Fold each of these.
Amino acid sequence: MNALSIDKNKRILVIDDNQAVHEDFQKILGLNEIDAASLDKAEEALFGGVPTTRKAEGFDIDSAYQGQEALKLVREAVQAGCPYAMAFVDIRMPPGWDGLETILRLWQDDPDLQVVICTAYSDYTWQEIIGKLGIADRLLILKKPFDNIEVRQLAYALTQKWKVIRQTRQKIDDLHEVVQERTDELQQQKRHLEDTVEQLNQVHTQLLQAQKLESIGQLAAGIAHEINTPTQFVGDNIRFLHDAFSDLRTLLAKYEQLLEASRENQPPPELVAEADAAVEEADVEYLTEEIPKAIDQSLEGVERVAKIVRSMKEFSHPGGEDKQAADLNKAIETTVTVARNEWKYVAEMVTDYDPSLPLVPCLIGDFNQVVLNMIINAAYAIKDVVGHNTGKKGTITVVTRQDGDWARICISDTGSGMPAEIRSRVFDPFFTTKDVGKGTGQGLAIAHTVIVNKHGGCIDVESEVGKGTTFIIRLPIESALDEQAGVECREEAHSLR
Ligand SMILES: Nc1ncnc2c1ncn2[C@@H]1O[C@H](COP(=O)(O)OP(=O)(O)OP(=O)(O)O)[C@@H](O)[C@H]1O
Ligand SMILES: [Mg+2]
């Protein structure tokens, strides 16, 4: 029922087994304008005061003679969307349901129905009525014989009350609708925000990946240089060994002839002279000294190349989405190796690894990236102090320690240091003091995300202008021990099978 029809609802159901009662109600409530005017006069005579001229209210009155019939009418009215506002209900209506039974049934179908119980006898006390019906706020009692005015007042008051209840409910429903709409909007905004955060996370991951690729690109030239140096001297040494071997082969041939001759008899003196000449030619003394050196150097060179290649492989290892128990000392050593060309011209590298540092749950690719960023930053800050190609060097120190439940990694440099206003912004994305086009200001922002968000660790900086800077990273180690214990446990179980 819409607001207009709520406003106009004057439907009243009279339920009584007595035909005369129905006629009475029709007379009292079904007034025409003349009746209304005479009723006004009567009211004035009875209650005094200025008469209010009113129009006939035009109550719409239906009759039911039994409870069952009333229920049918109420049900149909509800289904048709034009329910009764109120009902006058007789208490005694043989042979069917009595008034209370009828009211109970009617309320099951139409809980808003306002009810006036009409009774001539004290069949039930008020307490009994309430006890049976359980509700008192939609119920009034009207004693027979009726006072007409009272009937009219009840009809006005209760149809009005029904209207107010319905309007209030309508208001609440409207309010619910508004709240629901607003909630939907907020939900939509929330989903939108979640999508944006998700997209940002993706961009962030892509950025991290891009930075990794970029630094691998940047490192590639340095690594090529690092590999080139040992490769060159290994090549020189092999060429030297090649020539030396050719000299030695000539010498060996002479020695063979000499041996042959001495077996038969006295070797001819010219053969001895030739062997002497070959010894001279080959510079045997020099070769016996230099060949082992060349071999050792070559082996060392090959080992250096192998180490760089191994480190590159480990450094650029993509790692998985999940953390794995990692040896941080080894990871740092790997990064120090691949980044060698970035620091070796400006700094000595001092490493002090805690040999008893337990494995730490780690996204190793991301962690390597953090260490690399810090080493490159340190080298950059030192270059600021020692200058370019001056031969002077500062120091980068990397220390690892177990600190309770944490693995602590300190990366210090003897570079330019930072004033407080820079120190407080170094982890901000895109903050850089490098010249335009030189730095993106992403290094430490990414380091912060990796250490704090991805590992639940923390990252701090201490710095003094003119003295240098230390970055302190802490990663939780506890779960690594559990994970490792889990792995060992599984391995043990496997070997027992
Ligand atoms: N070890 C350090 N010593 C002195 N200042 C530093 C050090 N590390 C970082 N900073 C300061 O913090 C700023 C931000 O560092 P971050 O690594 O985030 O970006 P960037 O090095 O400037 O650029 P990118 O890493 O993208 O090349 C640097 O520009 C520098 O001013
Ligand atoms: Mg940087």
Amino acid sequence: MESITRRLLTNCFGRPSGPLGRLGGVLMALGNAATERHAVALAAPAEQDVVLVIGPGPGVGLAAAAERSAHVVGIEPSEAMRAMARRRCAPLIARGRLRLSPGTAARTGQPDASVDVVISVNNLQLWPDVPAALAELHRVLRPGGRLLITAHEKLLPTHLPALAAMVHAAGFGSVRTWTWQPPTRMAPTAALVSAVRV
Ligand SMILES: C[S@@+](CC[C@H](N)C(=O)[O-])C[C@H]1O[C@@H](n2cnc3c(N)ncnc32)[C@H](O)[C@@H]1O
């Protein structure tokens, strides 16, 4: 029974696929929109910044990032979510401000030191190897580049101080953690980590 529930949740939210994935995409676009937009506002990319959005799902934060920056790349392993994000962001893609690419946090496929800002919303809990993913994000960020990660606090794989220590160990400085309550009704508390690539 537990494995059936787990499989349903994975198909809906973890690695969305098929009709359940599309349903999950609709639910995430509604339920997580405030956190997605909050993360982009906190990361505050400038027009000329190159922004990497990890695990954008249906693309709400991706659109918000591409409205601020002309060089946004969404790294998303799920074909169903890439398709949803492509539809949501079609005008921004047509204007050349945004592209979607298959990949994961640990394998973004981006060149070294090529990115100014990395934003990850609600997928840290799905990274199979958090230190490996942080090392990859450190590799692609230029020195001085900014990292902003947020996830539902109750789903974090470790407590926030332990996560901050991992971010620090990956080579980041100015590591800060805090929590935030999204204004959406019944939305779970968000845990946030910000850091600067040293
Ligand atoms: C819970 S959804 C969150 C989507 C969106 N950011 C939001 O908050 O609504 C998790 C997303 O992360 C993607 N994902 C799963 N494993 C990942 C990984 N290892 N690296 C990056 N993204 C991943 C999934 O395909 C899915 O689109």
